[in-house]
Amino acid sequence: MDLLTHLRAYLAVADEGSFTAGAAGSATPQPVLSRRVAALERALGGPLLERGPRGVTLTPLGAAVLPPARDLLVRADHLLDTARGHVLNDVRAALPPQADPRSLAELRRMLTARGVTVVLDDAEPGAREQLLARGVAQLIVMPVSPDRAQIHVPLGGATVPGTMRSRRLHVEQLRDSDETPGPPQRLLLQVEDDVPHVRDRLTQAAHAAGLAPYQVVTAPPAAEALTAVHERGDVLVCDTEEARRHGLEWRKIVPPIVRGYRVRLAKDHPSRPILDEALPEIVDVLGRALGAPAADRPPPAMAQDAADG
């Protein structure tokens, strides 16, 4: 019996609460799913699920084996990811979700020409660091304070076009006022900016400008944030390319707020020498992908010296 396959079938049914939904969610024919669960029950010595008019419920045995089943599958997936990540010249890059795909295509072409196959992935900052530590990713871009960064991306406030007349967004403009109808505008920080050198600086500026604590919202879901910009006139903190992509008007924030990024590479990987040699080009391409102005991207020597392991 393929234990992992049968455990996946059991979890699909347990998570969805029915064989029908489990089959749909796992893209497995229902008869096949049922046979796999039945085989697992025989192997474990008892029923795992009880069928009812409203779906299935876990038996005591089913409830007992559910946590270790999840843990086993997570560990199995980690093992497979690690093995794939250490294949010669196969590099997984974990990057910020807002990276421009046109520049990422350039990155892939550049490294392919050097004999390195690149698999692109996006993840939140903390997850990117974990992927590197676990050996799943071999190239990541991490947020760091501007004084340690290879890449500097100016941040601004994005609003519905025509709603603000000034060329720059001064934080004090968002103070609640009896002269302004409706609720006060809020500053919406994305998950990517939920890091001390962005979040704390902007929070301190908002406090100094007299904004209420609720006017700085950290890491709302992307759909919720964009809807709030259109629905209640909130301000999305982002770079110029993100604003353009969403059809919003962008203004630089005063005081200046900057995303800082640093490229980090896996220490013990067959492709590390190739990545080290290509690092200045990698930093330059990723700088374009993340919205850094050309003048703010480091010269090749600085990019090379700043490499992390």
Automatic annotation (TrEMBL):
Q: Which Gene3D superfamilies match?
A: Winged helix-like DNA-binding domain superfamily/Winged helix DNA-binding domain
- Give a yes or no for keyword Membrane in this entry: no
Recorded superkingdom: Bacteria
Tell me which PROSITE patterns the record gives. Answer: HTH_LYSR
List the keywords (alphabetical): DNA-binding, Transcription, Transcription regulation
- Kindly name one Pfam family recorded for this protein: HTH_1
Keyword Transcription regulation belongs to the record: yes
* InterPro entries reported for this sequence: LysR_HTH_N (IPR000847), WH-like_DNA-bd_sf (IPR036388), WH_DNA-bd_sf (IPR036390)
- The record places domain HTH lysR-type at 1-59
Recorded hits in PANTHER family, A to Z, give: HCA OPERON TRANSCRIPTIONAL ACTIVATOR HCAR, TRANSCRIPTIONAL DUAL REGULATOR HCAR-RELATED
* Similarity-based family: Belongs to the LysR transcriptional regulatory family.
Q: List the protein's name.
A: LysR family transcriptional regulator
Q: What is the organism field in this record?
A: Georgenia halophila
